[in-house]
C-alpha cells in the first residue's frame, strides 16, 4: 500500500522551504560546473536589443530605447523623451543619427552666415525691398543656434576617467563649464540690434562665424564611401576661397572706382558673378587677365598670385591624398595580381591555370573588396572582432548537432579562428579518402556532394548556412575514422569559412566538459553502424527467455549427474 501523504501544518512555511531547497540545489549545481571547468566563463551571451515599450510616467515623460554607435560599438541606451520634443532623448550620443540630422540644420545656418554675410558686406545687396527678407532669414538662423545651445548641447554624453557620463545634470554642468559654451554664448549676442541706431549692415553678425561645429568629422563616419565626402569638403574649401577673393576684388574695385580702368570691375552685369569669374581666373592662374595700371592694382594682383599658388597647391595635395587613400586597396590588389601573373609567366605555368588564378583574384576583389579579410579584422580590438564574428556565424554554429550542449564561450572562441576561402566553380573542396583536417561553413554560394564514376551524380546540394566536414575533426585516425567519405565540389563561386582541427583542439584544452560531449557525439555514428551490421545468429529473431520451471529442472538434473559421478 502507498504511504500516506505528509501532513502539512503550514502551507506558507512549506512553500518557502521548498523554494529555499530549490535555490540550494541550483547553487550546488552551478558550483559543481565551476569546479569541473574553472576556465569556462558564463555560458550566457549578450542578449539582443529588445523592443521598447511605450508607456507614460506621471504624464510628462515616456521612456523609449535607442541604439547609437559610439566608436563602432552598438550601445543600447534607455532614454527619456520630453512631451514637448518627441523623440529627443535626455542624453544623446555624439554619433546618434538624430543628433547628426539636427546638426545638418545647424550647418545650414552656419553656412548661411559665413557665405551670405560676407557677400552682403561687400556687395550692394541691401535695400528697402530685400532687407525684410534678410531680417527673416537672420532670425531663423539665430533661432536654430539658440535651440541647439539650450536643448541639444546640454544633452550630449561625455567621457570622464574612461566612463561614459549620461546623467542629465552632469552633462548640462559639463557643457556649461566648457569653453565651447562661452564661445556659443558670444556667437549669439544680438549685435544686430545696433542696426536700430545705425545703418543696416551684416557687419554686426560677424560674431556668428566663431561658432564652428565638428559636423564634418561626424559626417565622415556616416558615409560608406568616405572619400566622396572628403572630395566634396575639399571642393567646398576651394569655392569659399574663391568667394572671399571675389568679395575682396569688388571692394578693391570700389576703392579705385568702378570702370576707372580695364583692371577693375566696370559695373556692368551681375556684380557677384563677374567678380567671382575674375577670382577664378586670378587664383587658379589661368591667364588672360587685364593688365594692372597702377601700384595698388599691381600689388593686389601679385598678392592674388602668391595666395593662389599656396592655397591651390595645398588643396591639390589634399585631393591627391584623398584619391590615393580611396584607391589604396585597389592599387594593392592590382599590384598583387600583377606580381602573381609575372611569377606564373616566369615559370611557364599553363594558360588554363593562369586564367583560373585571374578569375579568383577578380571574384575575390568583387565579392569582398580585399584579398584577405583577416588583415582588416586583425587591426580591430578583440571586442569588435568578437561582435562581428558573433553576428555573422554564431547562429549557424548553434545549429550544428556536434556543438549543441557546449559552452557558448567556446563557440565564440571558435568563431574567432575561422578563415575565409573562396572556391571557383568546379573546384573540389574535399575528396573521398582525404584526411579530414577542416570543417566548412558556407557563407555564400553552394556546394554539391557528388559521386559516381566521373562524379556526375549529385546526391545533395548544400547552400549558404550549411555545415559539412565537422565529424572528421574529432574522430581519430584509427580504422580510417578521419577519412572523407564523399566528394564535395563548388557549384559556382563558393565563399566558405574554415575551422582547422589544430585550432579546435587548442580551444578544447580549456573546455574539458565540452570536449567530452563532442567526443561522445563524434563516436555515435560509428557505434550505430556497428550495431546495425548483422552477424551470425543475429540474423534470426531474438531467442525467447527460458521459463523458470525448466531452468529449475535443468539445474536439478545437473546436480544428479554430479552426484552419480561421485559415486
Explain what you see.
With 567 residues, the protein is of the alpha+beta class. It folds into four domains: 96-222; 236-326, Orthogonal Bundle (Helix Hairpins), CATH 1.10.287; 329-368; 373-532, Jelly Rolls (Sandwich), CATH 2.60.120.10. The protein is built from 17 helices and ten strands. The chain has helices spanning 11-36, 97-122, 131-152, 168-177, 179-187, 215-220, 226-256, 271-283, 295-326, 328-346, 351-368, 373-377, 382-398, 408-416, 501-508, 512-532, 548-566, and strands at residues 61-70, 73-82, 158-160, 163-165, 419-423, 428-430, 438-451, 457-463, 467-468, 487-500. The strands form three sheets. Strands 5, 6, 7, 8, 9 and 10 form a six-stranded antiparallel sheet that branches. Residues 38-87 and 525-541 have low confidence and may be disordered. One of its GO terms (molecular function) is intracellularly cGMP-activated cation channel activity. Its main location: membrane. It is found in: Membrane. Pfam families: cNMP_binding.
Overall 3D geometry? elongated
C-alpha Rg (nearest Å): 39 Å
Q: Characterize the main sheet.
A: 6 strands, antiparallel
Report the helical percentage. 40-55%
CATH architecture level-2 label of the largest domain: Sandwich
Strand % is 5-15%
CATH topology of the largest domain: Jelly Rolls
Number of helices: 17
Mean pLDDT reading:
78
Structural class: alpha+beta
Poorly predicted regions are 38-87, 525-541
Instruction: Give the tally of β-strands.
Output: 10
CATH class category name of the largest domain: Mainly Beta
Q: Report, as a whole number of angstroms, the end-to-end distance.
A: 52 Å
In N-to-C order, the SSE pattern is: HEEHHEEHHHHHHHHHHHEEEEEEHHH
The H-level CATH homologous superfamily of the largest domain, spelled out, is Jelly Rolls
Query: What's the number of domains?
Result: 4
Amino acid at each position: 500500500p502507498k504511504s500516506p501523504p505528509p501532513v502539512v501544518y503550514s502551507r506558507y512555511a512549506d512553500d518557502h522551504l521548498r523554494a529555499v531547497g530549490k535555490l540550494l540545489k541550483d547553487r550546488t549545481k552551478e558550483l559543481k560546473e565551476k569546479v569541473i571547468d574553472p576556465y569556462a566563463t558564463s555560458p550566457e551571451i549578450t542578449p539582443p536589443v529588445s523592443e521598447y515599450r511605450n508607456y507614460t510616467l506621471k504624464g510628462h515623460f515616456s521612456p523609449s530605447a535607442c541604439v547609437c554607435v559610439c566608436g563602432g560599438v552598438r550601445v543600447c541606451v534607455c532614454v527619456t523623451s520630453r512631451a514637448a520634443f518627441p523623440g529627443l532623448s535626455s542624453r544623446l550620443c555624439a554619433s546618434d543619427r538624430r543628433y547628426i540630422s539636427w546638426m545638418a540644420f545647424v550647418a545650414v545656418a552656419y553656412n548661411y552666415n559665413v557665405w551670405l554675410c560676407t557677400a552682403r558686406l561687400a556687395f550692394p545687396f541691401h535695400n528697402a525691398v530685400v532687407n525684410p527678407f534678410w531680417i527673416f532669414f537672420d532670425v531663423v538662423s539665430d533661432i536654430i543656434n539658440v535651440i541647439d545651445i539650450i536643448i541639444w548641447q546640454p544633452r550630449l554624453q561625455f567621457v570622464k576617467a574612461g566612463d561614459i557620463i549620461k546623467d542629465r545634470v552632469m552633462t548640462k554642468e559639463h557643457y556649461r563649464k566648457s569653453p565651447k559654451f562661452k564661445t556659443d554664448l558670444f556667437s549669439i549676442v544680438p549685435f544686430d540690434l545696433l542696426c536700430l541706431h545705425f545703418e543696416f549692415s551684416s557687419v554686426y553678425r560677424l560674431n556668428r562665424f566663431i561658432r564652428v561645429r565638428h559636423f564634418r568629422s561626424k559626417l565622415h563616419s556616416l558615409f560608406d564611401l568616405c572619400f566622396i565626402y572628403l572630395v566634396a569638403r575639399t571642393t567646398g574649401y576651394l569655392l569659399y576661397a574663391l568667394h572671399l577673393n571675389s568679395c575682396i576684388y569688388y571692394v578693391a574695385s570700389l576703392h579705385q572706382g568702378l570702370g576707372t580702368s580695364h583692371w577693375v570691375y566696370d559695373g556692368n552685369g551681375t556684380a557677384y558673378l563677374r567678380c567671382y569669374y575674375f577670382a577664378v581666373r586670378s587664383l587658379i592662374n589661368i591667364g588672360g587677365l587685364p593688365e594692372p595700371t597702377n601700384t595698388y592694382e599691381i600689388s593686389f594682383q601679385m598678392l592674388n598670385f602668391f595666395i593662389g599658388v599656396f592655397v591651390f597647391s595645398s588643396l591639390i595635395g589634399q585631393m591627391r591624398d584623398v584619391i590615393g587613400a580611396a584607391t589604396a586597396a585597389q592599387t594593392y590588389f592590382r599590384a598583387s595580381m600583377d606580381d602573381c601573373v609575372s611569377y606564373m609567366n616566369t615559370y611557364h605555368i599553363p594558360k588554363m591555370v593562369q586564367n583560373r588564378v585571374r578569375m579568383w583574384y577578380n571574384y575575390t576583389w568583387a565579392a569582398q573588396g580585399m584579398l584577405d579579410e583577416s588583415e582588416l579584422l586583425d587591426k580591430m580590438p578583440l571586442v569588435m572582432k568578437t561582435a562581428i564574428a558573433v553576428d555573422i556565424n554564431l547562429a549557424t554554429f548553434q545549429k550544428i548537432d556536434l556543438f549543441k550542449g557546449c559552452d557558448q564561450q567556446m563557440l565564440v572562441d571558435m568563431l574567432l579562428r575561422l578563415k575565409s576561402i573562396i572556391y571557383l566553380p568546379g573546384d573540389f573542396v574535399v575528396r573521398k579518402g582525404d584526411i579530414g583536417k577542416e570543417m566548412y561553413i558556407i557563407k555564400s554560394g553552394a556546394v554539391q556532394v557528388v559521386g559516381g564514376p566521373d562524379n556526375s551524380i549529385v546526391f545533395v546540394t548544400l547552400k549558404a548556412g550549411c555545415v559539412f566536414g565537422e565529424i572528421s575533426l574529432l574522430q581519430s585516425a584509427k580504422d580510417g575514422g578521419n577519412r572523407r567519405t564523399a566528394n564535395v565540389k563548388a557549384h559556382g563561386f563558393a565563399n566558405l569559412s574554415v575551422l582547422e582541427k589544430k585550432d579546435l583542439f587548442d580551444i578544447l584544452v580549456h573546455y574539458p566538459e565540452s570536449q567530452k560531449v563532442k567526443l561522445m557525439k563524434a563516436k555515435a555514428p560509428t557505434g550505430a553502424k556497428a550495431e546495425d551490421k548483422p552477424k551470425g545468429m543475429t540474423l534470426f529473431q531474438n531467442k525467447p527467455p527460458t521459463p523458470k520451471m525448466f531452468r529449475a529442472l535443468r539445474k536439478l538434473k545437473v546436480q544428479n549427474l554430479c552426484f552419480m559421478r561421485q559415486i
